[in-house]
Amino acid sequence: PEQTFIMIKPDGVQRGLVAEIIARFERKGFTLRGLKLQNVQQSFAEKHYEDLSSKPFFRGLVQYIVSGPVVAMVWEGKGVVSTGRTIIGATNPAQSAPGTIRGDYAIDIGRNVIHGSDSVESAKKEIHLWFPEGIVQWTSSLHSWINEQ
Ligand code: GTP
Ligand code: MG
Q1: Eight-class DSSP state of 77
Q2: What are the start-end ranges of the H helices in the chain?
Q3: Residue 51 CA, closest ligand 1 atom number
Q4: Position 28 pLDDT exceeds 90
Q5: Is the CB of 112 inside a 6 Å radius of any atom of ligand 1?
Q6: Residues near 51 by Cβ (< 8 Å), separated by ≥ 6?
Q7: Ligand 1 pocket check for 60: Cβ under 6 Å
Q8: What whole-number distance in Å separates Cα of residue 79 and Cα of residue 8?
Q9: Residue 129, Cβ neighbours under 10 Å: how many?
């Protein structure tokens, strides 16, 4: 089944949004497969966002990600990459719909609370980068109540 990498950024942790964010993914019906709180080294943040290294906001973005602990997670389920992005909302909170995480909890693009992988391919890369130790194999007993097949 499809998996995505979700990270609650330092502002989300500082603002006490961890439980609220996890609840949204749980209640949707997705399965938690990995979870940890950690500080991020500068070189690791640069690696995570390497595709954006030529952007003018790259330095500020890296500083933001290393500014406090983050919550790294792997979530699994049908269409979780795309649906995860829908739950998160548009990159710029000024354009994120109400009801999305960024739409409900953020104002500034440089403090937008949460990251989600943008494709199945980048999800694989990011899960490998953030969880080299591997993730947890388990099957929810609710699976057939949430998925038709
Ligand atoms: P992530 O889930 O964090 O990867 O966001 P995204 O996929 O919605 O956007 P993108 O990957 O293009 O950018 C990564 C992050 O860089 C965003 O979440 C923002 O925090 C930051 N960012 C993107 N564009 C801008 C910008 O124009 N200005 C500033 N200050 N930050 C930006
Ligand atoms: Mg992105």
Answers
A1: S
A2: 10-14, 18-28, 42-48, 58-65, 80-88, 101-105, 120-130, 143-146
A3: 11
A4: yes
A5: yes
A6: none
A7: yes
A8: 20
A9: 14
- Tell how many helices (H) and how many strands (E) occur in the chain: 8, 4
Q: Is 68 helix (H, G, I), strand (E, B) or coil?
A: coil
Identity of residue 5:
F
Q: Structure tokens of 77?
A: 């389920």
Model-level ipTM above the cut of 0.85: yes
Q: Hunting for tokens 């548009």 — which residue is that? A: 90
Question: What mean pLDDT, rounded, does the chain reach?
Answer: 98
113's tokens: 């609370």
- Tens digit of each residue's pLDDT (9 = 90 or more) over 98-125: 999 999 999 999 999 999 999 999 999 9
How far is it, in rounded angstroms, from Cα 115 to Cα 70? Answer: 10
